[in-house]
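Review session, final week

We close the course with one last complete record, chosen because it touches almost every idea we covered. It is UPF0102 protein PsycPRwf_0497, a protein from Psychrobacter sp. with 142 residues. Go through it on your own first, then we will talk.
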Amino acid sequence: MPANPELLISPKQRQGGGYEQLAADFLQQQGLRLIARNWQQPKVGEIDLVLIEHGRSWNVLVFAEVRKRKLLGYGDALASITRSKQKKLIKTARYFLRHHPEYADFECRFDVVGFTERTGRSGQGEPLQSEWLQGAFLAPAW
């Protein structure tokens, strides 16, 4: 086993993990409870964050995708969730529910937390703009 397991993580993965942490912190500040991070179903996909939102009458299981974009010329971070990516997330969420039947009666929602770096006049990156899109897309009948 390597002395420093972090060496096995690519710089892009390390950066993505930082944005996932920012998103997890933000969502928890909004009252959601984190129950899983980077949940994977081999050969199917990965869900960045799985959280529970407690309501007065019901609980919602939230599957959150975290995205970061550097340039707006290609659309913001939220626009980067293609139909193909949506299908992959939905399929992975179905596997999550099979592995965790304790959440079978929860309503489910797919959210996206996006971070977009604005480029200023100097060409330097400016502070990130973040967005939380609740119910970013719908899944066909479960």
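Two points worth writing down before the exam:
The CA atoms of residues 118 and 126 lie 5 Å apart.
The longest strand covers residues 107-119.
Good luck, everyone.
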